[in-house]
Amino acid sequence: MARLVLTDASVVINGINLSEFITSVALSTSDDVVETTGMGSAGARTRIGGLADNSVTFEFNQDFATSGPEVTINAVGSSLVGTLTTCVIKPTSAAVGASNPSYTFSALCAEWQPLSGAVGELATVSTTWPISGNITKAV
Amino acid sequence: MSYTVTSDNFEAKKKGETITDKELLDLGLNADALVAGEHIKKSAQTKLATVEETK
User: Fold this and answer.
1) Residues A97, A3: Cα–Cα separation, whole Å
2) CB-closest option in A16, A79, A88 to B39
3) A 75-104 residues with CB below 8 A of B?
4) Do A75 and B28 touch (CB under 8 A)?
5) How many helices and strands, by DSSP H and E, does chain A display?
């Protein structure tokens, strides 16, 4: 199995490929830990998994031009902020396969920073969105 | 309702192709946001002739 250096990750938000603006992507999943310890647990806590909690973090180079992150996510008249939106991410832009799985999910665009950066720096956006429901992995 | 794709970055269809409301719905996409972001635009609807106009 080849190791992978991310240089070509694919990020599609609401059907628009924003990969060229993405500098970082992190898909996270965790399960609640539900304790089941009772008498007779041999002096150690016992646990089972509870509800899954998924989220995704994107970092963009901001671009206000056509097809950029701003008009795609925060367009005047109909913003995705505050709504659920379909996202698909892949390790590379190649076709989906065993070595390039796709992850599809519905994320709640709970936050957006239209403008962020200091003098002399590139304008960027860093955002973390909670995921509603499961992440579907396809190979 | 149908739309014409105006963005090079739209994944489901190529620029210039047509996509319908149902296709967008099936893909889980927000049509209003895509229109507002100028990724797609509403196609001109053909006006149906009334009975009087056909006489």
Assistant:
1) 16
2) A16
3) 75-80, 83, 85-86, 88
4) no
5) 1, 9
Name chain A contacts of B11, Cβ cutoff 8 Å.
12, 15-17, 88
What chain A residue is nearest to B23 in terms of C-alpha separation?
A: A15
Characterize B25-49 residue by residue with b for buried, 16 or more Cβ atoms within 10 angstroms of its Cβ, and e for exposed.
eeeebbbebbbbbebbeeeeeeeee
Q: Residue A97 has what DSSP assignment?
A: B
Q: How far is A69 from chain B (nearest CA, A)?
A: 10
pLDDT in tens, A115-125: 999 999 999 99
B residues 2..41 contacting A (CB < 8 A): 7-12, 24, 27-30, 32-39
Note whether A14 and A85 are within 8 A (CB): yes
pLDDT value at residue A68: 93
Q: What is the pLDDT of residue B44?
A: 77
Residue B36: predicted pLDDT: 94
Cβ contacts of A99 within 8 Å, gap of 6 or more: A1, A2
Encode pLDDT of B29-55 as tens digits. Answer: 999 999 999 999 998 766 666 767 666
Q: Which residues of chain A have pLDDT under 50?
A: none
Question: Which residue is listed with tokens 């106009």?
Answer: B53
